[in-house]
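Bumping with the actual sequence this time:
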Amino acid sequence: MSSPADILGRYWGYTSFRPRQLEIIESVMSGRDTIGLLPTGGGKSITFQVPALLMPGVTLVVTPLISLMKDQVDNLRRRGIMAVCIHSGLSRPEQQLAFDRARLGKTNLVYVSPERLQRSSFIGELRQWQLSMIVVDEAHCISQWGYDFRPNYLKIADLRKEFPDAVMLALTASATPEVVRDISEKLQMRSPALFSLSFSRNNISYLVRRGEHKEETMLKILNNTQGSAIVYVRSRKRTRELAGVLQAAGISADYYHAGLLPEDKNARQNDWKSGATRVIVATNAFGMGIDKPDVRTVIHYDLPSSLEEYYQEAGRAGRDGKDSYAVLLVSGADKALLGRRLADAFPPKEDIVKIYDRIGVWLGVAVDGGFQQVYDFNIEKFCALNHFQPARVHSALGILTLAGYLEYVDDNASMARVMILADKREFYSLELDSDTDAVFQCLLRSYPGLFADYVNISEERMARDCGLGTERVYESLLTLSRMHVLHYVPRRLEPYICYTQRRQLPRYISLPLAVYEHRLERARARMESIKAFAFGDGGCRVRDMLRYFGESDAAECGRCDYCRDEYRRRHSPEPLNEEAVLADVRAVVAACGQGVSLTAFAERYRSRSDEAVELLRRLADRGCVELRAMRIYITEI
C-alpha cells in the first residue's frame, strides 16, 4: 500500500513534506477531525489532496471562490489526478457528468461552493456517494468573527449529520484564537486535533513607507531590489495605470484583474511565473492558489481592509525562505479612504433592497420566479441605466448573496468547453460542409481528451489554424452540437446572477443581523487594526501583528521599519561636536602654519567624513573658518 510520502513524490515530485503537513495527513487518515492553521505559503492543499488519493471514496472540498476551485482542479488534472468542480456556471450535462463520476468512484476530489449545499437536490446526490472526507477550505468564513464570514458556510454542519463517519478537515491561513474556537463549534467537530505554525515569517521584512508620492516610492523600491514582484491595488483601472508607469520606467510589468479574458489571465500569469514579466500589478484577484516561491517583493500601493488580508497577500513573498520585502505605501489621505470604503461596503439597508428590486425588473424576472435560474449581469450597464454607484451595487450583491436571496459571481470569465458525444465509428457517416469539417478536424487534432471529459478550447486559436473567422468557428461548433456529435459550452464572459430563492417583493427582503450589523461592526474593528498597523509608531509592527493573531509571547522582529529605525537610533554615534572640530582645525593649521586640505582633514574622521565636511561648511557660514579652493583657513586665532 502506498504511503503519503509515496503519493507526494509520485504526483508532486517532492521528497519531503513541509512543517505540519504530514501530521495533518496522518490525523485525518486516522479518522480524527482536524484543524490546520497554516500561514500563507504553508501548503494547505497538500494536506487534503494527498490523503484523498489514499482514502477510499470521494473527498468533498468546500471552497468559496469559483476561480480558485477551477485552478486547483486544472492543476490536479495536469498531475493525472481525477478531480471535478461543481458550480452554477456549469451546463447541466457538465454537472451530470461530474455527479456520475463521483457516484461511480471515478474521481478523487469534488470541489463545491458553499451555496451548493443549500440545495436539497445536491444533498440527495451526495447520499449516493461514498464520502470519506469533508474539507472546509478558508474555514474562517464559517465564523462570525472571521474577516470574510459567509452564512452559507453554516450549512456545512448539516453534512456532519448526513455523513457522521466522514472525517472533517478545516483549513485556514489567517484566524485569531477566537475564530479557531468558533470554527470547531460551528462545524460540530469532535475533539479536533489542532496543528498550527507560527504566523511569523522571519525572512520577510515588513516595511511601511509614508509619503504623498507613491509612484516615486514604488519605482525607487523596484529599482533598488531584484527578482519578481507583486504590486497590489484596489481597482482594475489602477492596475493598467501603474503597469504603464512601470513600463515607461523600463521595468518589465503587466497587469491582472478578475475582468480579463481567461486566455489573457493565463498568459500574464504564466509570463510572470516564468520570469518573462518581472512585476505584476494586480487586484486581490491575483495570488490565490499561485505558489511562486521566488517573489522577492510585495508592494501594497493601496491599503487593504484588514490585517488578515494584508498578512495573506504580503505572505506571497519569500516562500522559498530567502530574504524578501513586504512594503506598505501610506499617504495622509488613506485614513479617509478607508472610511469611505467601509461606507461603500455597507450601503444603507433600504438601498440594498432597492437594488435587489431593480435587478429583478432589469433582468425580467417575475415575482416568485427565477429560482435556480442563471442570468448574465453586466453591472456597469445596470448602474449606468439605474444611476447607481458600481461599488455600492457590488457590495449590495455581496450582502444579498450572504443573505441567501441570490448568488452573484463576478470571477466567472471562462473559456469555451467541448466534449465529444458521438462514437468514433459514427464519424465516417457525418455529412459536413467544408468549413464545419475543417473545424471538427482541427478540434480532434489540437485537443486530446475530448472523448473523456470537457476540454477548454480557444475559438480564436482554431480560427487561425483553420484560416476562418471566429464567428464561422462558433457557428460550426453550434452545428456539431445540434447534430449531437459533441456538446459545446460557449465562452461565458459576463458575471452572472443565480437566484437561490424565488424573487421576492421588496417588503419581504430581510437582512439578518449576522449578515449586516454584526459584519459592519467587525469590519470597523478590522479597519482600525490595519490603521494601527499602518500609522502606529508604538513598537515592532510584526510583534503587534502576531499578537493580533494570538501569539502573545511574540518578540520584536528586528527587521520591520520600526525595528530598523530603533536600531539606528540606539547605535548611531552622537553628532560631531562643533567646538571640538573647530579646536582640531586650529591645532592642525597652527602646526603647519597654513591652510589645510578640506578632504584631507575630513578623512581624519573616517566613516563620518561627510558629516565633518557638512559641519565645516556650517562653521564657514558663521565665519569661524574660511573655505577657499577646497582648503580650510582660520579666520580667528
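The C-alpha cells above came from a reply further down the thread. The mean pLDDT is 87.
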